[in-house]
Write a structure and sequence with these properties.
This protein is an all-alpha fold. The chain contains 15 helices and two strands. Helix 1 crosses helix 15.
């Protein structure tokens, strides 16, 4: 390497240095140190007395394997993945509709995106009002004669419905975000391809499955991956709707809520056990990410 090339390389790394330092300090170091804590005993007592973590090997993972609450959290997090296909199909379908030049289309695009920029606190107040026993949902169901007029269903206090009620809020909040991503993908597809297919006699359904979906595969992979990771790491909705309890009867308790409760949200302050639980969640997320890549890389979205 000559002097000029060396100077050029040094200049490039000099410009990258601030970002690299921040990346190491706030991303790489916390990930590595948090992973290390998963194999140690480290509590608030250690922190307060400035004692170093004690290496315990796989003891934290053995504790998790026998902890029924953690198992419940993992199962609920996996069950939360049911929102992913519904969210993706609905977002893609609406993106196709609003990608056309129709009257008031700008208003509908903005309206669909409003939930994305709505704070979770405000959303919780609104949906709590909808879900309570005197709320809008019960009134609507009674008006349509789909519920006993004397029923006073409280959707967030019933173990049979609380999980699904919170999941629908996640669907509502994420719908507009993925719709915008799909719209961006749709606008990269050359119109000539679709027009040529129509001239050849293809129906709108065939155009969608044979041209639109295959060309949208990278966007579908991105949206599927993001929504899968968001589902397995759901926390905000459970915190605000259940006051951090995961109730009623642990019906909404998730794996990430377990991590939060063991570290900051309860009286445990067991950072080692919380880090081990976080590693399990990260491993599950990694496996799901690999499955997403394999599924879409093999062209499974093609009809």
């Amino acid at each position: 390497m000559n002097v000029k090339s060396l100077r050029s390389a040094l200049s490039s790394y000099l410009f990258l240095a601030p970002a690299l330092v921040l990346l190491i300090l706030f991303t790489l170091y916390p990930v590595l140190y948090g992973s290390y804590l998963g194999f140690t005993k480290y509590t608030a007592v250690n922190f307060a007395t400035n004692q170093p973590p004690t290496w315990v090997g796989l003891d934290n993972f053995r504790t998790l394997a026998t902890d029924d609450l953690f198992k419940t959290g993992v199962l609920n997090s996996l069950k939360y993945l049911l929102v992913v296909p519904a969210l993706q199909l609905a977002s893609l379908a609406v993106a196709v509709l609003v990608n056309r030049q129709l009257p008031f289309i700008a208003f509908f695009r903005a309206a669909y995106y409003v939930p994305v920029i709505t704070s979770i606190s405000l959303a919780a107040v609104m949906w709590d009002w909808i879900y309570n026993k005197d709320g809008t949902l019960n009134w609507l169901l009674k008006s349509l004669h789909l519920m006993n007029p004397k029923s006073n269903q409280s959707w967030l206090l019933d173990p049979n419905t609380a999980f699904w009620a919170i999941m629908f809020v996640t669907f509502w909040r994420g719908f507009g975000y993925y719709m915008v991503l799909y719209m961006a993908g749709l606008q990269t597809i050359p119109e000539e391809l679709e027009e040529a297919a129509r001239l050849d006699g293809a129906t709108p359904w065939h155009v969608f499955w044979r041209i639109t979906v295959p060309l949208m595969q990278p966007t579908i992979l991105l949206c599927s991956l993001l929504s899968t990771l968001s589902a397995i790491r759901v926390l905000e909705e459970v915190l605000v709707f259940t006051n951090g309890t995961g109730g009623p009867l642990n019906s909404t308790y998730t794996a990430l809520l377990y991590v939060y409760k063991k570290s900051f949200g309860g009286l445990d302050f067991n950072y080692g056990l919380a880090s081990a639980a976080g590693l399990v969640v990260a491993a599950i997320a990694l496996i799901l990410s690999v499955l997403n890549f394999r599924y879409f890389r093999d062209g499974s979205t093609r009809a």
